[in-house]
Amino acid sequence: AHQVVKALVPRAILLGSHTTEANLSILKELVRRMAVKPGTRSIVLVSSGFFLRDDRHEEATELMDRALRAGVVINSFSTQGVTAIIPGGTAEAPPGLQIDVKQEFERKRAYADEGIMQELAGATGGTFFHNDNDYFAGFKRLAEQPEFIYILGFSPQNLKLDGSFHALKVTVRNVSSPTVQARRGYWAPNQAADAAEAAKEELREQVFSRDEIHDIPVDLHTEFFKSGEEKAELTVSALINPDSLRFQKAAQRNDDTVTVVTGVFDGNGNYISGIQRVVQLHLRDRTLSALESAGINVEETFTLPPGRYLVRVVVKDAGGQATAARNQGVEIP
Question: Are residues 112 and 51 in contact, defined by beta-carbon separation less than 8 angstroms?
Fold first, then answer.
């Protein structure tokens, strides 16, 4: 039996890893798509749970951080219901060492499977419904939005890149018998994040967000020309004020790199099309002075059918790490 178990364990781990990877990928994509939706955004994750291995904790942490930045609350609904393990076994399975081992395994399995669901809810301000067979009450409870949600953050100093778990504790003072649902802690990464990839991912999230950012003054204008009954040319112009850009002086030139992403979404928040343009600035003082008066104009054109659209422009300044994000609605009759 020992050899049979050893032979089956790798296969079970492989299948479980595929399930976990699929679940995390779907949740990550769902959070990304919901980030562009208006109003309050929440997900109800209905599952019997899935096991999260130690090598997947970094992905789960990334998912939680992305949900927090996008303002998406994840509520978890465990379909395991009331977990009842009869001490001493049953008539079909009399007491014995085998039953004791099996019951201990079942307890640990149920706890491990639900652990990630509890963590997702606690980290994003959601509710974890479990150990209850009243499904109707559970769905009703998860559909209700909390009256208040607080987002607390800090930047750990001298963090070791060892993949270890760091516990967090939230304490509410001067309140009688408070009930706090919060993140239990976080997992340190195993290696330093790639700066280029992190910047690219941050820019992608900002494009799919709805929040406006005004670090850099940007005037957004749109106009369309109908070339037929079912086709129109939509022109999007972003006029960037260079006063807020951080130029670097080099060889009597003012250098900076500005990335401009123009995205178009339909009336339901679905991504339609987008264009990224990188503007390399290598300007003499006289040219920069003239540009400060005229501004930097970036213009993009999209071919679209009639309908309602949301245009979003995100501007990223490499020199000062400043960002601008603007939204504008367009209706093409």
Answer: yes
